[in-house]
Amino acid sequence: MYQKSMIKMSLIRSSQIFGLSISMFISMIGFCYLITKWYKITCAKLGLTGIPKKGTNLNKTLYHQLIKIDFITQVDRTLACAFDCSVSHITLISGEVVKINYKLKNKSNNYLVSEAVYNITPFVASKYFNKLQCFCYNKMIISPYTNIVLPLVFYIDPNINFDDSTKNIKELTLTYTLNNMGKW
Questions:
Q1: 60-180 — its CATH code?
Q2: pLDDT at 153 (0 to 100)
Q3: Which family is this protein grouped under (predicted)?
């Protein structure tokens, strides 16, 4: 025997479809409004997208920490020259670009070949010492009885204030040693 199955269909009126569409549209607008509020609240709590975290207290003095730098020069005993810095020390703000001049005078009647190397103490701070212009690690040929000026342009990276190993450093020593590189 063959039976027909009957499918019961209900009719949906166009007014019901219109009402359902309008209620979905209003629900979507409400959802978009609520999700943006939720996003702003979440970002404010996490400190994302430029909205500061609630309760964050930054110590503003860290941005303006003063650092004293002492300048020391040394000359290889075999070089007949004078090598000095124009100042013995300065106090600067981290991030400040500074220009210092060193003076070198050949006191002999021979050409000298030399090279300057530098050292920063304490050593842990050396990664924050940034040279923009420097005469170090360059072989220099100095004519007899000549005076030359060697500029050094540098800054101390402000991140020195946030590194746990360097944030309490208030004084650095920059030592330049002029080495004899032989005859010309």
A1: 2.60.370.10
A2: 94
A3: Belongs to the COX11/CtaG family.
Rounded Cα distance, 42 and 45, in Å: 5
In the chain (184 residues long), the average pLDDT of successive 10-residue segments reads 58 80 87 77 62 46 77 93 94 92 93 91 91 88 93 92 89 94 73
Q: How far is CA 148 from CA 49, 84, 107, 151, in A?
A: 52, 11, 12, 10
Sheet bearing 89-93, strands edge to edge: 89-93, 66-75, 171-180, 112-121, 140-142
Note the pTM of the prediction, 2 decimals.
0.63
Give the integer Cα–Cα distance in Å for 158 and 62: 9
What is the residue whose two structure tokens read 């050949």? 106
Beta strands in the chain (DSSP E): 66-75, 81-85, 89-93, 98-106, 112-121, 129-133, 140-142, 147-156, 171-180
